[in-house]
Every structure is written in C-alpha cells, then in structure tokens.
Design a protein that fits this description.
Number of helices: 11
Largest sheet: 2 strands, antiparallel
Number of strands: 4
Structural class: mainly alpha
Strand content: 5-15%
Distance between the termini: 19 Å
Helix content: over 70%
Mean pLDDT: 80
Radius of gyration: 18 Å
C-alpha cells in the first residue's frame, strides 16, 4: 500500500499537468487510505503538497504573462487569512468526538473525510460538465487544457481585471475556510469566481488560480506547524514525486486532447467521493 501511495503522488501531478486541475483532490484519500495517515494530519500535509505543486505549476503561466498579480492579491488576502485561521484555531478546536448516534460515533476524522468527500462530489460534477455559461453569452471551460493555454501564445490581448470587490472578497474567504477544513486547493471554485467577479480572460484565470492556491495552501500549512509534528522527509519525497508528475503531464498535454480524459477523471473522482462517504458512514 505504501508503494501505491507514492505512485498516487506521481499520478496526482500527472493529472495536474495533463488536465490543468483535479489531481490535488486525490491527495487526502491517498494519504489516508493508501499510506494510513490520520485524516487530520493528512489535510495538513495536503496543504503543503498542493501548495508547493501549484507554485511550480504557476511559474509556467507567469512566464507566459498569464498571471494577474493584482487579482491574486485581492482574492488571495482574505483566502490566506481564512485558511490560516481555520488551520491554526478552528480545526484544533473541533473535539475528537463530536457526537454519537445509535452507537455510531462521529469523530473529527470522520467529519473531515465526509466534508472532503462532499467536495469531491461537487468537483467531479464540475469536471463532468465540460462547459458552463458565464454572464449568459460566454462559454468557458472550468478546467482549461494546457494545449488551449498555448494556442496563439500570449499574442492576443487579455482583458484587464474589473473587480467586484464584495463578491471576490467573500468568495476568497469562503474558499479559504473550505481549504483549511479539507486541505484541497479548490481550483474548481476559484476559476469561475475569477471569471465572474474579476472579468479575467479564461487563460489568465487559470494561471492566477494556481498562484492563489499556492499562497493560501502554504500559508494554511504554516498554521499547522505549531499544532502538529511534521514529517518533513516524507513531505519532501511525496511532493517531489507530484512535481515530477506535473512535468510529465505538461509534456504530454500538447500531444493528448484532454477533454475525454477530463470527463473520465471526473467520473473517477465522483466514484471515489461516494466510496469515501459509504466507507466512513457504514464501515
């Protein structure tokens, strides 16, 4: 199972490189079910792995001019505050035993895994539904392929961000809290928010999202350092494999059309989410 866990690390990065998202949502299940880690520490480790992997991925977009630093700052600040506060104070304050129903004890670990499974179900629906309408007349893909990002290079003029400050600040805080609870990046929530509230070009939204995910995840992990004993050697190995996977996936993304892969991966995430719910509640 340990070998499968490290293979999963490679596959997580491979997914991010091939289809531009989704892989990070498998990090917590891999840590819990394959490597046998506690769900609470797994969400902490996931923040570091997702943050570091997203940071590496965002650099590629930054070099192409596809990162809006201003948008990342406006969205990222409330998100960073929320995720740090959640990891530093809220998660440790959740009691180990929450309540008991008919002899079934709902623990902190079970609660976090059920929240995570719910996020997986919503993320899978986002990936399965290839497109959505934005403002009634613009169709965007919430999980843009890397080959789409490379079309026409950066020669076309990208829209300058026009902020709906109330919307983007609220969304940033919500996503930050969610990230703090379950340890997932939440890119499937961030990208549509950037398009809707910041009026970003879709290409710019994907690159900016990676930078936001990196910042809030790594800052959130800092809130865990004071609460848990961290196995830095393990984190280094797992994160390195994930980053290797990103480079492999990015190489093949120009050769493989990712639409079908994205849909298949969405169904896989949906099955995994349902499996976690059933396992935690009944087994």
């Amino acid at each position: 199972m340990e070998i499968l866990g490290y293979i999963a690390a490679l596959l997580i990065g491979l997914s991010l490189g091939l289809i531009g998202g989704g892989g990070s949502i498998l990090t917590v299940p891999a840590l819990v079910y394959l490597l046998g880690l506690n769900p609470v520490i797994s969400t902490a480790y996931s923040l570091f792995i997702v943050g570091l992997t997203s940071l590496v991925g965002s650099y590629r977009f930054y070099k192409q001019g596809l990162v809006s630093l201003k948008t990342a700052l406006v969205f990222g600040l409330p998100s960073i505050v929320a995720v740090y506060a959640t990891r530093r104070y809220i998660v440790p304050a959740i009691p180990d035993s929450i309540f008991t129903v008919g002899g079934f004890e709902v623990t902190k670990g079970i609660l976090l895994m059920l929240l995570f499974a719910g996020l997986m179900v919503f993320a899978s629906i986002s990936m399965i539904r290839q497109n959505r309408k934005v403002n009634g007349d613009v169709t965007v893909d919430e999980n843009v392929d890397h080959d789409i990002l490379e079309e026409n290079g950066t020669s076309e003029t990208l829209a300058q961000p026009k902020f709906n400050y109330a919307g983007i600040l609220a969304e940033g805080a919500i996503v930050g809290t969610l990230t703090g609870l379950v340890g997932a990046g939440g890119g499937f929530l961030i990208i549509p928010a950037l398009v809707l509230f910041s009026k970003l070009d879709m290409k710019m939204a994907v690159g900016t999202s990676l930078l936001i995910i990196a910042a809030k995840s790594l800052f959130g992990f800092m809130g865990d350092v004071a609460n848990y004993e961290i196995d830095w050697a393990f984190l280094g190995i797992f994160s390195s494999l994930s980053i290797v996977g990103i480079f492999i996936g990015s190489y093949f993304s120009a050769k493989i059309h990712a639409d079908k892969l994205k849909t298949a991966f969405g169904w896989f995430v949906l099955v995994m989410g349902v499996y976690i719910i059933v396992k935690e509640l009944f087994f």
